[in-house]
Amino acid sequence: MDSQKESNEDSPFIRVHQISNGNQREEIHNFTIENREKPTQETAWKSIYIGGLCSFIQTTQFTIFFPSMWPYILTVQLCFLFDIFLYLLYFQLQPDLKQSSFGIVVASYSFTQCIFSPLFGYWSNKIGQVRFPMIVGFIIMAFGNVVYLSLQYWPAYHLYVMMFSRLIAGAGSGNVSLLRAYASTASLSKDRSKAIACVSGGIAIGSMIGPGLQLLFTPLGADGITVLGLKLDIYTAPALLCLVINTIGLMIVQFAFVENHIQLVDQNAGNEEEEEEKKKKLMNPCMIAISVCIFTRFTQQFINTTIESIDAAYAMMMFSFEKEEAVAMNATMHTISGAIAAALYLCFIFTGVRNIKNRIYTVISLAIPLAWILSTYPYNFYSNHVKMMGNGSDADCDFNKYTWCSDLTTVPIWAYYAGFILVFGISFSIMNITNTTLFSKVVGPRPQGTYQGIYQMAGSFGRMIAPLLMSTTYTFFGPRIPWLILIVNFVSVIAAWIVLREKMVPFEKYEAKRIQPTLQFSR
């Protein structure tokens, strides 16, 4: 019964109402699904599953570096020109250039991803295929990982090379928006939410599993081993793994990925010009609902990258972890969260659990991280304070460098890491399903490449802004101000969902609401 209801709600029928000279005429256009090469009425599940695997590979090679990047920066001296750049950039007020440089390095990946996402989309539309741009993206990402692996040979220009490698990898990952667009054009309307969930699930699981893979290299330590003149340690070995992953992804796209686009064709249209005219009559989607979904995506990626950017430094300062301990704990939490996220996505994709109320569960998934942020704010009524950093150690807080260390209280470690698992393992998994699915339904039965590209850009913009803004505020004011920024952000987006809840509906319901007043007026 549920599947029949879902099929009826999402069936590709477009109802067009015309009013001319006071006479109302109602036309019902029956749209059928057709492959560009041959007619088909089946969702291309094989290629969509492969697309989900490719999205997992892309996201994994991005997030695997986060647990070790900050400790890696601590092991080297900033080059002179980079010192000057940061000194001028922050108006000679920055007390910790390394923390700021870390934020810039993290943001560089999202900067080029934000630029190249629409470029890949335009290129894909221009040549009429997804496969070749995907291959090019994997090659670019592989080159970026080769540059990262070569950091050990550039000690005097360490941060320049690290930034350059992340810029290159970010440019290659711009093709990830093609996967969501492909999922929307390779699936029937009734299968759209499940198809997009496959790609979104791959992205979300990759963001959780990626940092957890760092555990594989923890036994290497900072000294590592040397193989054929190449030093592999806890900091550089992830780049080698990413090369292997990129190669696997490239081979999958080259030999296993077969495009099977599905598009809407009007059976009542007599020729191509008439068909295009019919398509133009489909009204625009609700831009308010689209904006709320995009704002939600930005907020999710903003907090996600904030935690990724400062988590290692935060844990070393708040919980007295050394570098290696912070890397291991971060990786462990991501592994646990990733396992939970994977179970939720598999349950959603392969069972009937996916029939959930998108609006309600999105608000719930937004409330969980808000509760986590509120519970881990360093309130003054906490009795314990952060410890002073000792000589030769990177753990604890440097009272000589940061004035805010003196009155900063410590939060319960169990509250921080239990909430971490709830947010990144459960909350964001639900949000990736509900918000992305509702966004696709709000857009409606039309090509979604442009809309999905904008959706991807919103997440990339959040990833770009977060490390720059939050690393700076963390350096100046400690964790209190970044936490307040996150609280304001989440309160705003939750309020938007509640106030505008009547707008957050699929395109068919939005269209019906817009048409009904017109019918009543004409009568």
From TrEMBL:
<feature type="transmembrane region" description="Helical">
    <location>
        <begin position="414"/>
        <end position="433"/>
    </location>
</feature>
<feature type="transmembrane region" description="Helical">
    <location>
        <begin position="360"/>
        <end position="379"/>
    </location>
</feature>
<dbReference type="GO" id="GO:0022857">
    <property type="term" value="F:transmembrane transporter activity"/>
</dbReference>
<feature type="transmembrane region" description="Helical">
    <location>
        <begin position="135"/>
        <end position="154"/>
    </location>
</feature>
<dbReference type="Pfam" id="PF07690">
    <property type="entry name" value="MFS_1"/>
</dbReference>
<keyword id="KW-0812">Transmembrane</keyword>
<dbReference type="GO" id="GO:0012505">
    <property type="term" value="C:endomembrane system"/>
</dbReference>
<feature type="transmembrane region" description="Helical">
    <location>
        <begin position="69"/>
        <end position="90"/>
    </location>
</feature>
<feature type="transmembrane region" description="Helical">
    <location>
        <begin position="454"/>
        <end position="477"/>
    </location>
</feature>
<feature type="transmembrane region" description="Helical">
    <location>
        <begin position="483"/>
        <end position="500"/>
    </location>
</feature>
<dbReference type="GO" id="GO:0005765">
    <property type="term" value="C:lysosomal membrane"/>
</dbReference>
<feature type="transmembrane region" description="Helical">
    <location>
        <begin position="160"/>
        <end position="183"/>
    </location>
</feature>
<dbReference type="InterPro" id="IPR051068">
    <property type="entry name" value="MFS_Domain-Containing_Protein"/>
</dbReference>
<dbReference type="InterPro" id="IPR011701">
    <property type="entry name" value="MFS"/>
</dbReference>
<dbReference type="InterPro" id="IPR036259">
    <property type="entry name" value="MFS_trans_sf"/>
</dbReference>
<keyword id="KW-1133">Transmembrane helix</keyword>
<feature type="transmembrane region" description="Helical">
    <location>
        <begin position="237"/>
        <end position="258"/>
    </location>
</feature>
<feature type="transmembrane region" description="Helical">
    <location>
        <begin position="102"/>
        <end position="123"/>
    </location>
</feature>
<protein>
    <recommendedName>
        <fullName>Major facilitator superfamily (MFS) profile domain-containing protein</fullName>
    </recommendedName>
</protein>
<feature type="transmembrane region" description="Helical">
    <location>
        <begin position="327"/>
        <end position="348"/>
    </location>
</feature>
<keyword id="KW-0813">Transport</keyword>
<keyword id="KW-0472">Membrane</keyword>
<feature type="transmembrane region" description="Helical">
    <location>
        <begin position="195"/>
        <end position="217"/>
    </location>
</feature>
